[in-house]
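Q: Could you write out the predicted structure for this multi-component system? I'm mainly interested in how the pieces pack against one another.
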Amino acid sequence: MSISDILDGKLTEKEVEIKGWIVTKRSSGGVQFLVIRDGTGTIQSTIHKDEVAEKIFQDADKLTQESSIIIEGIVKEDKRAPGGYEVRVKDLQLVHLAAQEYPIGKKEHGVDFLMGVRQLWIRSPRQIAILKVRAEVIKACKDFLDERGFTLTDSPILTPSAVEGVATLFEVPYFGDKAFLTQSGQLYVEAAIAAFGKVYCFGPTFRAERSKTSRHLTEFWMVEPEMAFFTFEDNLKLQEEMVTYIVKRTLEKRKRELEVLKRDVRPLKKAEPPFDRISYTEAIEMLQKAGYRIEWGEDLGAPHEKFVSLKFEKPVFVHRYPTKVRAFYMQPDPDDPKLVLCADLMAPEGYGEIIGGSERIHDLKLLEQRIEEFGLPKEAYEWYLDLRRYGSVPHSGFGLGIERTVMWICKLKHIRETIPFPRTMKRVYP
Amino acid sequence: MSISDILDGKLTEKEVEIKGWIVTKRSSGGVQFLVIRDGTGTIQSTIHKDEVAEKIFQDADKLTQESSIIIEGIVKEDKRAPGGYEVRVKDLQLVHLAAQEYPIGKKEHGVDFLMGVRQLWIRSPRQIAILKVRAEVIKACKDFLDERGFTLTDSPILTPSAVEGVATLFEVPYFGDKAFLTQSGQLYVEAAIAAFGKVYCFGPTFRAERSKTSRHLTEFWMVEPEMAFFTFEDNLKLQEEMVTYIVKRTLEKRKRELEVLKRDVRPLKKAEPPFDRISYTEAIEMLQKAGYRIEWGEDLGAPHEKFVSLKFEKPVFVHRYPTKVRAFYMQPDPDDPKLVLCADLMAPEGYGEIIGGSERIHDLKLLEQRIEEFGLPKEAYEWYLDLRRYGSVPHSGFGLGIERTVMWICKLKHIRETIPFPRTMKRVYP
């Protein structure tokens, strides 16, 4: 039996057993009010002095915050109780009396303190709500792709070479040699499309980011779909559908959690295809007009993305960046070889990039040329070049960052709350 | 339009367009036979000289193995064709002519060679079948847990301390300090149960294994469920249900793939609850009787597991190991404090361990004592001890190894084929 079943109205007037933790406790006259959490929800229970054995009432009086208990009682509909139901306790069994002075009290705590007790912080209503949304977003990604005939093909974590630039690589000593933690599974899903057509990987990726921004973690999760015979345009369309699906699913299944977070859901409801689009060149002009000191040819930074994102009510694709500021594997724009067929999807409300995607180069010679131009070690990419030697096909793909998507959907100020145990430059504990 | 739809009989006599790769080619009289793969399946197509433009017939003649093409034609039912259908080609467009001499030919290749061209090897029918089973097993794990109210809570990959022993830790330099690649997400899911009740993590785990056995990878994926208020017995029951669910689902959805692998599915169909059970002590006696030189108190090795596994037709739990050969966090057996309430689930047919699970210690004092006895640095576990200070509850969990499960279901000789890009002591490329 679970609290969520009670809150769904399935157990009214029934006898229930709840195993959980004390969230808060107060007493008034001959009644003790215990708010209990069991992992599926939170409910108020009442212990009436004249209805239970004396020992039970005394035990209840001793309960500290976060103590674990098992209660038996009857579910009553009660408009005054939060959630509309309460459990009238008949029996109470103490499982473990939590130490006095639970570290996380009602007063405001600093972030460093809370991050240091993350193992307890994740029990608080706000963190539970965020992590429930995270689980839903992940499930939505997988369901969306599975329903469309994609095959999950896990990319390796330990890799021989960089995908996104050597500056942010974590190096791992590997039996007398060395390996690197993956920055993206993309090159490997490109290999898998010749076996499965449409594939995706889902896993942790790593960037040794020195930047202490509110949008960076050193360890974060990405879903990376890759599709054979998909054009740049097909790719954008799939992204629109997927993001719409994720948002709709979360609105539907995580209504309670979004309420806990006091998320105004109206802006989310606007995420419907077609999304807005603006070229990189247009974005630069827009930024320059607004007084930003940025030249054509420079990459967009976080403040630029924020500015662009705030100009649109829907997610917006910023497309066709200059070749030089993008990765070596991107297909040139046939209309302008200085540009590549890539797009970053910016979440609205100032959130910026949640997806990066592109059509990939399928021509062997051009890819070899790019590897040289970008100063990359060709021998490390021989296996990847093989994909262009044997049955190369036009193909496209993208990577959606789970934490940034959750940050937007929950409307959070900082990305660190979007993952159970965040890792940053300064933190690898607990 | 996909080949799988044709093979399902949905497109008979319809005009279709297939985008794919040439698997094999032969010609006979005025007909060319192309076997084509598109990622959803494989089908024969025929080009009749008198039915197509001369250029198309000539183009087809030049096609090399793995060349990518787009064909248009009519689906015909044909008992003689593998799969029962063929496409009668009307038009053919060459996308990319694969280089002559595809590295993987019809002759036998050594494993080292094949592992070195894994980016191409995954295209072969046997590898496709195995990796499809892998994707199904993973999806089955998640669906099983999601349907039962579990919340996915990702454990971190970069961690401050060892879970399964320091000998097999990968160390990562981390901004002037150091971190370790996770060996198991268990300690973190234990934290999450107080927030969500029933949780699981799913992700890559790492062991710097020096042993070059057919059952070890340095990087492998685990699903690790953890349940508040679950007894040892509840835990075994859940494992039985989950393994049964995984096997049933694979038998149902991956029939074609198991046929490609020539897997005799009769032994798999026997995996129904209740599974067999044998205590560690009984297993030792059984091994000693069979002439194995093993003493009570020693851990079981791969040959022992194999022997035990071959004695049973169903998966078998080997339960209650000596405290000393198991991890520090396991709950003692109330009937014999020399033992812990753990069980390894051995897959039949000689495969051995696919799951390790246990009830966890919930008492603070006992856990502190074990950390001392095992010579572990207490300060690294302070956060974990907190879980026993604030509302500790009896709880249990387990870890199921994806690759070992796939190895058993596919009946493979070596684990390296169960993951797209295997990592071993000697291999981190491609």
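A: Regarding packing and overall arrangement: The two ends of chain A are 32 Å apart (CA to CA).
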